[in-house]
Amino acid sequence: MAAVESRDCPVIRALTFDVLGLIKAIQSSYASTSPKIVETWGHPDSSNSILSASLNDSKFNPLLAVARKNGHIELVNPLNGDIHSSRIIENGVEDPIVALHLFKKDPTDSLSRECTLVTCTRKGNAALRSLEVDKTPSEDSTCNDSVTTWNVCSSGEVLCSAVHGNESQALFGGKGVEVNLWDLETRSKTWSSKAPPKSSLGIFTPTCFTAATFLNKEDHHKIVAGTDNHQVRLYDISAQRRPVISVDFREAPIKAVTEDIDGHTIYIGTGSGDLASIDIRTGKLLGCFLGKCSGSIRSIVRHPEIPLIVSVGLDRYLRVWDVKTRQLLSAVFLKQHLTNVVIDSNFSDLGTTGIAVDALSDEAQLNQNEVDASPPVKRKKGDKKLKSKKKSKKIVEEEDD
Amino acid sequence: MGGKRKNGEDDNNDIEEKEEGSVNKKREILPSLIKNKQKRSAVHAKVKHEKKREKKKKSKAREAAERRALELGEEPPVKAIPRTIENTREVDETVCMPDDQELFAGNDADEFSSILKQESAPKILITTCRFNSSRGPAFISELLSVIPNAHYYKRGTYDLKKIVEYANNKDFTSIIVVHTNRREPDALLVMSLPDGPTAHFKLSNLVLRKNIKNHGNPTSHKPELVLNNFTTRLGHRIGRMIQSLFPQDPNFRGRRVVTFHNQRDFIFFRHHRYVFDSKESKGTKAKDTKGENTLQGNVVARLQECGPRFTLKLTSLQHGTFDTKGGEYEWVHKPEMDTSRRRFFL
């Protein structure tokens, strides 16, 4: 542990959400490099358990949306924890919300005190809600909200969802639900994946997607999904409905998938606490993040500027990792099972570390350029098959000898 | 470790002496430098014997000092505390503090709180792995006598997930699966229902009741439960899980006590009964106040073991009920955790 603390952690601020409904703010200041809990908001109660959270990370008026187990959606100020408004969703307890995304506001109409969220429940009822942000927490009311709902899937359970960076596309996937891509403006399904064919033994594995994300901020054509069957798949909408690449990783279900800003590296977390990064263009494992991580990883977040990722999970720790060296920078014990984490990227320790952060981000960009310089290698499924055939041929030859 | 280091230091001293060219010829030769095995072992034996004598001398001197202090009515010299790997254990931030409000809130919200608050009574289903014979059934029959309100069900060829479903319908609160390998119980799966965690233990050193000398036979009273040294957050959770197997209102007339003692991540299980012997010849005082209340005269309290006796080691704690394929783990033992002997998780 002493070795961990000696490595200094850059200045970050993260918010974690746990099963008792507590929101904890963790930040590492310039003075003390190891991150600490600075604030705890909320009353501990198991019915308050936070299922999903989303942060609108703008410079002015940042806003945090939180979905709870008892069917509440709350809008929270991420700086001081004030609850701006709280809504009860119908059937919130029987049909809990699994995914929630808060739209980034346009900077032009920052005066309007409305925000839009897209939510999806376990049974596949997606909804686009626009809520009014009150400065004073009022009575739970749903009268002045405009809600448009639609159904994402007819059967099965939705387990994961992601909204693309331009906020016009959203994907949903789950147990018995293939990855669906929906246009949020017209609310129409634009694409859905197809289950991979039966294996050579005729075994068909039932669909179960446990994590999914868009690979790139700019185009929405590439989707990365993790399955219950410890597979990471890359889908290309413009190419085909079946996965372009699928990679096996260890033996536990993939519980978290997060994309890097460089557009080809992804970070995956499994149900038994393994964290790894994969270059999805080739499907090669870049390396594992080692560090006594013993519980299922629930959420991974990449810092938008500093090259580091933050992971939380059932082992009650928040861990900060260096992306380049894959070393553990620091770990914070937070006492509860953690479900989600978000990073407040605008945080800087009273401006004293602005320069350092900039330098780091420059470095990150440089590194990116280096990586981007290498031509992207795409390996299609056909290549793989060819290779395997060659291999089998070789083996046959050897046997003949 | 300490002993080894001491040896090393002695060796260094020897080398220094050698360099100085000391008079003592025998001291300077290390046994490991001698190539002839017979001579080497002879020298080694001599060194060992000398060390032993020195140690004896030291302890005698210590004893004498103590006795002298007693005679003179002075404060006896402070007893040295031996260094063990437990009292030099690595600093662990997850150790529970008694003044932690969040911990209590977490306890109130966890899966075992309804049983531990006595809102519902524990009801345990015990079953086995598919193939089960010899010591397995014997162990289960003893477990049935240890845990009140436990019911044995034949495993048959049912899937464990089906059994979980069945137990949920019948309002069981926990399932224990005894896994045997080569007719010897070697693993224990403790599952808390309906959605509680699943703990997987390695089971070793099983001694059944009939193999314990002077064993007693337990009564059907509800036992007392002793949980020792479950200190960390994970240990606390395991302790609560074990606690939820037993009824929370012990019957003190029954004088049965069940102990789960954690030491270096191994959980030792013992099952005893209190015995209060009334003896007239000896003038010893009864330590137990209960004994004094019930019996007149001089009473000696002692413990009588009534088996079984076994050791558990946690290998994983799974979130939710048994699910090997899609299950999430709260804690899994991984080989990279074993880089220090002084790191404990419970």
UniProtKB/TrEMBL annotation, chain A:
InterPro entries: WD40/YVTN_repeat-like_dom_sf, WD40_repeat_CS, WD40_repeat_dom_sf, WD40_rpt, WDR74/Nsa1. One of its GO terms (cellular component) is nucleolus. Residues 377-393 have a biased composition (Basic residues). The keyword Plastid does not apply. WD repeats lie at residues 290-331. Residues 367-401 are annotated as: Disordered. Keywords: Repeat, WD repeat. Gene3D superfamilies: YVTN repeat-like/Quinoprotein amine dehydrogenase. SUPFAM superfamilies: WD40 repeat-like (SSF50978). One of its GO terms (biological process) is ribosomal large subunit biogenesis. PROSITE patterns: WD_REPEATS_1, WD_REPEATS_2. This is Uncharacterized protein. It comes from Coptis chinensis. The lineage of its organism: Eukaryota, Viridiplantae, Streptophyta, Embryophyta, Tracheophyta.
Automatic annotation (TrEMBL), chain B:
Residues 20-29, 61-71 have a biased composition (Basic and acidic residues). GO terms for molecular function: rRNA primary transcript binding. Residues 10-19 have a biased composition (Acidic residues). One of its GO terms (biological process) is maturation of LSU-rRNA. InterPro entries: Brix, IMP4/RPF1. Transmembrane segments: none annotated. Residues 36-60 have a biased composition (Basic residues). It holds the Pfam family Brix. Residues 1-73 are annotated as: Disordered. GO terms for cellular component: nucleolus; preribosome, large subunit precursor. Residues 122-323 form the Brix domain. This is Brix domain-containing protein.
